[in-house]
Structures are given as structure tokens and as C-alpha cells.
Amino acid sequence: MMSIVRPTLLLDKEICLRNIAAMAEKAKSKDLIFRPHFKTHQSAVIGEWFREFGVTAITVSSVRMAQYFAKNGWDDITIAFPANILEVDEINALAKQIKLNLLIENLESVEMLTKKIKSSVGIFIEIDTGHNRTGIASSKYFGINTMLDVIRANKKFSFKGFLSHTGHTYLAQSKHDIYNRHFDAVLKMKALKNYYKREFPDLILSLGDTPSASLCENFSGIDEIRPGNFIFFDLMQYQLGSCNFEDIALRLVCPVIGKHGSRSEVVIYGGAAHISKDAIINIDGKRLYGQVVINRDGEKILLDERNYLYKLSQEHGVIRTTIQAFNNFNVGDLIEIIPAHSCLTANLMGSYLTTEGERIKMMNCDFDDQSSNGSSSSNLLTASR
Question: Which residues form a coiled coil (predicted)?
Fold first, then answer.
């Protein structure tokens, strides 16, 4: 088997399984429905790993993703993205095959859907609890009631409850800030349940984000969680305190192709086309696209934030290093980059090489030897000197 010769997404299956087990156990201990978001991994193979932990219902972010996982045996799917009326034919086809939940956030969408939906679907109303992306504010009862009037009038619609993505936890400045944002979201959602529970006694409150699902303990009144990133974690989660370094399952393995001692920079084959341009802010206030793991005497070492992926073009990545760390890099080495945001890196790369040597396709990826050559993980980084 050939060794890695180009940017390759390395996935530690053991860490993934450990992360899934921890989140499934937490959901069970809190009496929560665990409906994980599959947009992070986008893989039928990885999706099967969740079944070992009793997962039977999933979340996706598009109709195409719902189609993909439905073809791979998942029959209870929530599309946690506002319904796109232009895809109604595909939605109708899916709804004939599986238990499908749709998301709405405005009256116009639900009015159009009611004219075109032909099969039974569950309907969630999206609530904006502070992320300010999509969803109706929890205090806008008039707007919520107008949507409910349309839902009630259509026999093919089953009102499931209220769903929110508390994505503003990603902007938190501390763990305490995450707790506060989560608790505020919980209070807003519980107020809705209290207001509508007489008419809809079985309505579900669904929250989805990895920081609060990982860190918070108070889910009083919440029925369902939908985290996704937790399976891999990344630098964003590490910086937020949602995980430890040992919980990060994903690495982008990149060849070193150049060194420039005059400016303490190392050039790698691995750019924006591979890792994305999502970034976090490092200790010096600079944009950090990834952090570096090197192999030193057989031990993997995470270099501190003074050694970081700081500049990207399409194929090139430039690592800025300290003078002391510069000599750890040699042309021809393989190094590992922990991405700022693993979801986007995975989406760009399209396939994985596991630490067990297994090649795993993602949704709509035609995997071949040209896209990601790899050997067993025991050969990784052994070229480092």
C-alpha cells in the first residue's frame, strides 16, 4: 500500500466511537431524545457507527442529505433547515418513504407547502433563541399562531414542536458564557411549551449545538438534542472548552513542501481547498486556520498557538513558527493540521482515511486512488525527522 503523498483527512475511529458513546450516555442520563446531526460527517459508513449506541433518528441539513441517508436505511429524519419550496417534489418523494420532519420559520413557506405537500410530514417551527440567523423570536406569539393556524388546517401536517439551533454558543467568550446562553435558550423554549402544551401536550422542544450539549447539565423541559460536531470536535470546540485535545478525532495530514528560515515559515501542500477558511483568533489576535501536530520520537505533540497555520491560498498553506520550533519541520515530512472547523474541512475533502487504514466515502464522493492515497496509520508521520 502506498504512503500518504497529498492532503489526506485522517480519522481516528476509536475517538469517534468514544465521543458518540459519551454523548449518547449523556442524552440517556438526561432523558433526552438523541437525534444527532449528520451534516458533520456526511457518511453512510460513519452513520452506522451510531446504531451501536441505539440511535434510530437523525438530523440533516438538506433534502439531498436526507435522500442519501434514506437510501442507506435511515427512516426517521429531520431536515433542520428551513423548507425550500422549490424542492417540494423531492420532499414529497421522501415523505412517501420515511418519517420526515420539516422546518418552517415564516408564514409564506407554510402557506406554499400546504398547497403542494402530498404526503404526511412532521412540522417543526424554528425559534431564534439568539443566533439571529433563521427562526422566529420566541416572544412573537402572533406570528407563531398564524403559522399554527395553517398547520392545524392541513391534515397532512403534524405539528411536532419547536426547534432551535443555539449557534450563538460558538461566539461565547468563556464556559460561563456558554452556560448563560444555553440557559437563556432553555427558558425561551420552555415558555413556548408552557404556552402551547394544553393544545399540544406532546410537543417537542429540540435544541442543537455541540458546545451546550457537551458542557451544560441543565436541560429541564427540553426533549431532544441534535449536536453534530461532537463526533470529530476541532479547534473551535477546544478553544471553547467543549472538548480536550484527546477528543479531537480529525486531522488533515499534509506534506511539507518548503521552508523559509528568514521568516520562520513552513509551506505545506494543504490550502483553502482542503481545510476551508474558517478560523479562530489566537493569543496574538491573529487568524488561526489550524494548529500543528508533529511527531517527535514517536510521540504526537500539539505545538502551541505561536506555531500555527496563518495563511492560505487554494493549494498552499503557510505555517508561522517560533525560531525554536522551526527545525522540527523538514521538506518531505508529513505533519498533521487540526482544523479550526472540522465540518467544513470534511465537506471539502469528501473522504476519510481511518487510523485503521479504511477508506470511507462521504455523500456524493466518487472515491478513487487519486483523491486520497493512504496506508495504515502506523506509517503516518514516520517520514518526519
Answer: none
- Tell me the residue type at 202: D
Rounded CA gap, 141 and 162, in Å? 13
Q: In terms of Cα–Cα distance, which of 26, 20, 207, 218 is closest to 130?
A: 207
Query: For helices 107-116 and 88-97, what crossing angle results, to 10°?
Result: 60
Q: How far apart are CA 216 and CA 382, in angstroms?
A: 40
**Of residues 279, 296, 290, the one with CA closest to residue 252:** 290
For residue 353, give its domain range: 245-379
Per-run averaged pLDDT (10 residues), the chain, 385 residues: 83 98 98 98 98 98 98 98 97 98 97 96 98 96 98 97 96 94 98 97 97 97 98 96 96 97 97 96 88 87 93 97 94 96 96 95 62 40 34
* Residue type present at position 296: R
DSSP codes, 299-316: EEEE--TTSEEEEE-SSE
CATH number, domain with residue 362: 2.40.37.20
309, 330 contact by CB (below 8 A): no
Burial of 299 per CB tally in 10 Å (0-12, 13-18, 19+):
exposed
Domain end position, chosen among 177, 207, 232: 232
- Determine the distance from the C-alpha atom of residue 351 to the mean position of all C-alpha atoms in its chain, rounded to a whole number: 15
Same structural domain, 220 and 163: yes
Return the bridge partners of 269, or none: 316
Domain identity same for 335 and 283: yes
Taking the C-alpha atoms of residue 85 and residue 91, their distance in angstroms, rounded to an integer, is: 9
**Rounded CA separation 300/339 (Å):** 16
Q: Are residues 169 and 22 in the same domain?
A: yes
Contact 320, 339 (CB under 8 A): no
Instruction: Return d(Cα 79, Cα 127) in angstroms, integer.
Output: 15
d(CA 344, CA 350): 10
pTM of the predicted model over 0.85: yes
Tell me if 157 is assigned to some domain: yes
